[in-house]
Amino acid sequence: MTPPGLRILMTADAVGGVWVFASGLARYLCAQECEVLLVTLGPPPRREQIGDLAGTPGLRLEITDLALEWLDPAGDDFSRACRELFAIERAWRPDVIHLNSYREAVAAWTAPVIVTAHSCVHSWWRACRGADPDEPRWQIYAANVAAGLAAAQQWAAPTEAFRAVVEHLYRPPTSGASIHNGLAARPRPAKKRPVILAAGRLWDEAKNVALLARIAERVPWPVEAAGSIAAPDARSRRPLLHDVNILGELSHVAMLDQMCSAAVVASPALYEPFGLAILEAAAAGCALVLADIPTFRELWSGAALFVDPRDDDRWCEMLTRVARDAKLRRKLQMCARERALAYSLEDMAAAYGRLYERALDRTVLVSALARAACEVRP
Fold first, then answer.
1. What architecture does CATH give domain 7-182+345-375?
2. Of the candidates 230, 186, 184, 183, the residue with the CA atom closest to the CA atom of residue 204
3. What are the residue ranges of CATH 3.40.50.2000 in the chain?
4. Neighbour order of strands in the sheet with 59-63
5. How far apart are CA 21 and CA 97, in angstroms?
6. Could you read off the pLDDT of 146-181 as tens digits, one per residue?
7. How many CB atoms lie within 10 A of CB 295?
8. 193-340: what fold?
């Protein structure tokens, strides 16, 4: 349980699942009598995202134009970000800094800092392209990620599998915690439609939605895809999604409506450190057909079917089987919904509360040791 009255400065971006994570956690913490200042970096949140926070006692939102680190790998905006965030801290005086990015942890914070490792470009690159990025700007990015992890008092990842990846790539001096993401509201499943739904950033190569487009004509049900197709980074490749019904970027409520009515959700992702959209789909009673990758195995073994994300024919076979076998489909829907109950916002917030307490305790200990060292000097 997070101590009541704690003041938390939390950063977030509005591009993907980080917003769902940060806004949900912030609202929950405020319900526990904490105060949260949610500071956005990168593209500003949409109107409906801001509206989701309206009327939450103890929650303030500050929108900045500071660059997200993965959109600014060379660090051109890094110094300005550190200065502005430190000025925000000085004006608001939080007890804890909770960053949902890495490099800003090296700013001259006075409060203890924790970092949540949601993803990183180097692990993305290895999973999607089988190598490390070789441009100098990505080497700068990696150095800043490592520095941020080293500067944080505590850090966490949303799965054990991704925590191990971060430790292997960046060798942080402290051991990270594995804290599964959780949901607050449980969507109520509606009458299911015979469709296969994909949800997420369609422009993201890691989501691998192009695989579903390649097999769409060969499966018995229509394939729908909900999410943005326009990348915030002009360098990102635009996917070819012929034969897929593109629903576009939906509000969170509209996305949940699609999940509640979809019979099957498919994710052939090459890379997914957690997958909040999959958790929401499971809670909405969708049958899950997922890529056979470590994070999905960790979270959904026994509650989903797994397929090699690079095997088009096997995906076609599995989706056809689920579409035609009503008994299997109902079993998968029930298992996914039951598994989703294990990932609650209450449990996630309690785990972060313990992380905040450890960061605060460590800061107090370090300060005490420093004072003691000064007192014994001749």
1. 3-Layer(aba) Sandwich (3.40)
2. 230
3. 7-182+345-375, 193-340
4. 59-63, 35-41, 7-13, 96-99, 113-116, 154-157, 177-178
5. 16
6. 999 999 999 999 999 999 999 999 999 999 999 999
7. 23
8. Rossmann fold (3.40.50)
